[in-house]
Amino acid sequence: MTIDWKDGVAATVALALEEDVQTGDATASLVPADSVVLARVISREPGIVCGRPWFDQVFAQLDNQISVEWTVDEGSAILADSLLCRIKGPARPILTGERTALNFLQTLSGTASITARYAHELRDTECAVLDTRKTLPGLRMAQKYAVKTAGGRNHRMGLYDAILIKENHIMACGGIGEAIQKARELSPDLLLEIEVENLDQFAIALEARPDVIMLDNFSIQQMKKAVALAEFLGLERPKLEVSGNVEIDRLRMIAKTGVDYVSVGALTKHVQALDLSMRFKQ
User: Fold this and answer.
1) Whether 166 is catalytic
2) List 6, 44, 81, 99, catalytic entry
3) How much of the chain, in percent, has pLDDT values that exceed 70?
4) Known catalytic membership, residue 161
5) Fold topology of 123-269
6) Do 218 and 202 meet the contact criterion of CB atoms below 8 Å apart?
7) Range of weakest confidence among 74-78, 88-92, 234-238
8) Domain with CATH 3.90.1170.20 in the chain
């Protein structure tokens, strides 16, 4: 799935600044209006850099006299104590934007860093790691951008661009076959995925031919059996996605079963922000 993240950067940043600044920065007003400073952003720990467009946009919206010079590329791996960028311009707007800019950069770098670990575990396999809708409110597009930047793949963006039939949908529709048939009738152009919880449900779903079948909390042995059953359909078999409490130390074992995707909510919901610091130079 391709996400047009560029169109949303300015709006997301504007909301973040409105949340923080509102009627003005009372503390920054202590600084002389004509003060010009040079600041540096340092990473205190290793990780993957992500979020430069959001960081830049914060200062672009506050004052066009601020310049940001990056010393690292988006998506690059860094070590502790790495210099990420230099910022030059009027002191007041730099102080005002400091926290908002760092919030974007540290959060998206944290998302990218954990994604890179998962993607690394799946190297040299045919299986890909997917994100989910378990994102921080207001930052879905940004976090999905970070996942893709770090080597993961994007699942659906929201409820509107793909169909994912889960347990409650199945119950409300009267069964797996009924739910898939209705989905095909109402939204024939959307990707259609259904979640199953056991091999009996999987067999029923196979007959209805969705695009993707999600194996929810399957054991390794159940995954192998599901792959074997699906192979009877040949090249037209649905893609198979594993979901549910996927730990990183099980990824390669899961990939070896022959499934196509592993979706991991922890990429975006259990984010530990990268430890970054901005310091003014004397």
Assistant:
1) yes
2) 99
3) 97
4) no
5) TIM Barrel (3.20.20)
6) no
7) 234-238
8) 6-119+271-280
